[in-house]
Amino acid sequence: xxxxxxxxxxxxxLLLKFFLNYQTTCHLRGLVTEFGESSNSIRTELLKLENAxxxxxxxxxxxxxxYANTNYPFFDEINSILKKxxxxxxxxxxxxxxxxxxxxAYLTGDIAVGKDSxxxxxxxxxxxxxxxxxxxxxxxxxxFISRRIKSIILTxxxxxxxxxxxxxxxxxxxDK
Length: 176
Fold this sequence. Notes:
Beta Polymerase, domain 2, Arc Repressor Mutant, subunit A, 4-stranded mixed β-sheet, alpha+beta, 2 domains
């Protein structure tokens, strides 16, 4: 869908990387390895995004680190568009709002680090969640977003244990 608006596949990958999980910081070589593209094409796109104000860079040692400029005037809008493209907005609407005892919902896996994926890994946190009802909601949501959703139900303690050293992206938290 974004390919119709943004013709550079590298730019789309960079926007997903930095704007889905805006706490992400990366350097050029890491992006080259992750994307499997030439350093020149990635460097060119990084400079364009930095010159446009979407990314900020800092020098740490001998590496130039890039991260999303959360003060960019359209940061929230870009983040929202990317969430819609990936299907996160529908997950929030279709799944999290329907589950009564849910404490939080996290994305894990590739999408948590800003890599587009056909599989969305979803960790649902709560003490007494109805697994069969959640599976029904997940199946319904999969048809809307045309992606597979792998869900796992955990307590808060299990979440801290299993994902303490893995990237996660909080997408919903209860007001309780």
